[in-house]
Specification:
Blueprint lengths: L6 E10 L2 E11 L15 H8 L7 E6 L2 E2 L2 E3 L5 E3 L2 H10 L15 H7 L5
Antiparallel strand pairs: 1-2, 1-3, 3-4, 5-6
Length: 121
């Protein structure tokens, strides 16, 4: 049976030195899903989201978007890095993120606020 998930995260891990922040986190998101990630301050919520977009490099795991597996390899520090910059850029155009302290415009729709957000990191 084919997996209809739009986003599949498998066994995502992230460490900062000896401190393990993400320990094998997995997630499947299907079209129409609403997903909340909750936890106390410092529990890894933002790190998880940043790893999905490769704003932080995960230590291990896999990311699949719309059926396409992100191609990765290990860098010299033992973290994952995307091997195909064009594929990563394409993936980033399909995954949107609005940061917690980003100022939203009350006169704009949600989509207009997202479009207004930073394009480059």
């Amino acid at each position: 049976m084919e997996n209809s998930a739009k986003l599949v995260i498998r066994d995502l891990c992230k460490s900062f030195g000896d401190h393990e922040v993400l320990k094998g986190v997995s997630l499947e998101a299907h079209a129409g899903d609403v997903i909340s990630i909750i936890g106390s301050s410092g529990s890894g919520k933002s790190t998880f989201l940043r790893c999905i977009n490769f704003l932080e490099q995960p230590s291990q795991g896999s990311i699949q978007l719309n059926g396409e597996q992100l191609e990765t390899t290990l860098d010299k520090n033992g973290d994952l890095k995307a091997t195909n910059p064009k594929q990563l850029q394409k993936m980033r155009t399909q995954l949107m993120m609005v940061f917690q302290h980003f100022n939203l415009w009350s006169h704009m729709t949600v989509l207009e606020n997202i479009i207004e957000g930073p394009i480059h990191v």
